[in-house]
Amino acid sequence: MRIAMGLAYDGSQFCGWQSQPSLCGVQDALEAAIKNIAGQSVRVHAAGRTDTGVHALTQVVHFDTEVVRPVSAWVRGVNAFLSPAVRVEWSCVVDEGFHARFSAFSRSYQYLLYNAPVASALMANKAGWFHLPLNFDAMCEAAAYLLGEHDFSAFRASECQAKSPVRNMTEATVRKIDDYFIFDFSANAFLQHQVRNMVGALIYIGKGAHPPEYIKALLQNKDRTLSPPTFSPAGLYLTGVGYDQKWALPIKPEHGLKILV
Fold first, then answer.
1. 244: which strand partners?
2. Alpha helix (H) ranges present in 60-135?
3. Tens-place pLDDT, residues 69-119
4. Closest-CA residue to 109 (of 136, 91, 128, 124)
5. Rounded alpha-carbon distances, angstroms, from residue 47 to 100, 107, 129, 158
6. Do 107 and 190 form a contact (C-beta atoms < 8 A)?
7. pLDDT interval class at 253 (50, 70, 90)
8. Which of 10, 28, 51, 223 is catalytic?
9. Could you give the domains of the chain?
10. Which residues 6+ apart lie within 8 Å of 86 measured at CB?
11. Is 10 a known active-site residue?
12. pTM: predicted TM-score of the whole model, two decimal places
């Protein structure tokens, strides 16, 4: 049978989602915990591979097993063998045609940025930080250029293995709450480091280094070497994964990072 799960995790405790020889990935921790309940090894597949230091409020995974267990075992039982930095929030049996990655039609990310002269001690691993004042209106105007279908090569990591750099961005907005900026992005899928690279470019615009039209120029040039450096992973959160209702997944509505600020 195929089991789907919803996860949340603190990415600062891991070297990313993907399994590593040193067993430092979220995938390694989850597979080991599931093995304790299933009594056999499983391979877990995720909706998206978050990088080192990146968090998840809503990560969706699936695995196959011949073992029958009550839903509570796949939630509370598995959590008993996980560190407090990872939680299984729900679990359900799904049709074998479901795939956590390939059945998803959208992903949503948020980036939380603390904008103040001195970095936050309490949010050191939970938010990015920039010390100079940022122009909110300029960043909002710039973010709008990211909407729609584009070749996002200018925001793609050099080691990205995606077959195509074309993505359809359905949301790209900036919000400000006190000393925090929240960047919201939704697309059919994302390239490696794409969100962190887009945030880095928006921050450069916010500090006055470039006009808002800089984003449009980067998209047109399709050259990563012309873009600002990749920004810190600390403030990046996977906040939602979209699936057809036919899969009947008990995914909570996206709650966003306002719970943190």
1. none
2. 71-72, 78-79
3. 999 999 999 999 999 999 999 999 999 999 999 999 999 999 999 999 999
4. 128
5. 5, 8, 28, 22
6. yes
7. low
8. 51
9. 2-103 (3.30.70.580), 106-238 (3.30.70.660)
10. 7, 8, 9, 10, 13, 26, 29, 30
11. no
12. 0.94
